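Tokens as discussed.
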């Protein structure tokens, strides 16, 4: 099983596939991920995904997008997102997709270009994600102009994917030219078409990242909802609402998950007793630690330790 390199603040360490440019271009099978679902994460890179076979659900900042064969999606920088299998008759069918990511720095050749044409789209929450329906899918019906430019964008995205997966380094100059061409099309049909409207900045992303940072630094201590809300600079009700809306998990369930994840390494190296690990991970009692551990991993901490000693497969949380 493949697991994304996600840090404690849920940012992903993107392993670029080009040795010269901050570009990542990879073909994936959704079955490569545990339970056909990637971990929720964010990164400063721009992401484009095209479904080649099957279908999947993409969640971006709490909004769900159903993608079918031939559909593409753009995920803007620093947005929380993940892809998951689409349940069908009780099963999750395979999905093959191409994922392209590149850092916005590739587009920032000059401060004027960055300020005028890059940042306005990067920071506008109206464009957290854009879906590009497959031609002839029926989803591309409606506004003719909208359908036309999205079809053009999907063609350009696919061409860049083919270019970067075949010769990621030899095609560096052409890749950058094509990325500019794609961005010009996106900008013309988003920010430029809505230039009379006020840019909307999602302040809730910053709130969530403050909360994640606070939990990361203080998980071993006694933490209350008041503490978490104060770290996010919001009231308690808004803290719960924005966190659950964006990540599809309550703030306290996330805290429990995080504490359990932090307890796994000391369980494996056996330098501490289970009681010591429970307290160091932020649990007030070893019995509560064991209860949450079994709920999330299906076994007790002691069983997990014994399985690790025996070299048996271990569950993930």
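Sequence:
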């Amino acid at each position: 099983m493949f697991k994304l390199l996600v840090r404690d603040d849920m940012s992903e360490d993107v392993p670029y596939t080009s040795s010269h440019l901050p570009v990542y271009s990879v073909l994936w099978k959704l079955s490569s991920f545990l339970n056909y679902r990637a971990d929720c994460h964010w990164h400063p890179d721009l992401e484009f995904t095209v479904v080649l076979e099957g279908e999947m659900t993409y969640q971006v900042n709490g909004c769900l997008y159903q993608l079918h064969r031939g559909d593409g999606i753009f995920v803007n920088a620093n947005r929380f997102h993940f892809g998951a299998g689409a349940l069908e008759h009780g099963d999750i069918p395979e999905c093959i997709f191409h994922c392209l990511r590149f850092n916005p720095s590739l587009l920032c050749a000059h401060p004027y270009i960055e300020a005028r044409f890059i940042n306005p789209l990067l920071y506008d929450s109206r464009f957290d994600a854009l879906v590009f329906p497959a031609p002839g899918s029926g989803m591309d019906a409606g506004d003719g102009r909208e359908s036309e430019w999205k079809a053009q964008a999907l063609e350009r995205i696919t061409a860049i994917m083919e270019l970067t997966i075949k010769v990621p380094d030899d095609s560096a100059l052409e890749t950058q030219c094509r990325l500019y061409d794609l961005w010009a099309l996106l900008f013309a049909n988003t920010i430029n078409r809505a230039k009379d409207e006020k840019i909307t900045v999602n302040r809730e992303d910053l709130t969530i990242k403050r909360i994640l940072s606070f939990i990361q630094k203080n998980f071993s201590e006694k933490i209350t909802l008041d503490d978490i809300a104060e770290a996010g600079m919001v009231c308690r009700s808004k803290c719960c609402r924005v966190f659950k809306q964006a990540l599809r998990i309550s703030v306290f369930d996330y805290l429990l998950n995080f504490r359990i994840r932090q307890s796994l390494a000391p369980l494996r190296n056996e330098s501490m007793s289970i009681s010591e690990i429970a307290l160091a991970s932020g649990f007030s009692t070893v019995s509560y630690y064991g209860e949450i551990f079994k709920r999330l991993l299906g076994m007790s901490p002691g069983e997990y330790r014994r399985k690790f000693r025996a070299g048996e497969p271990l569950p993930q949380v």
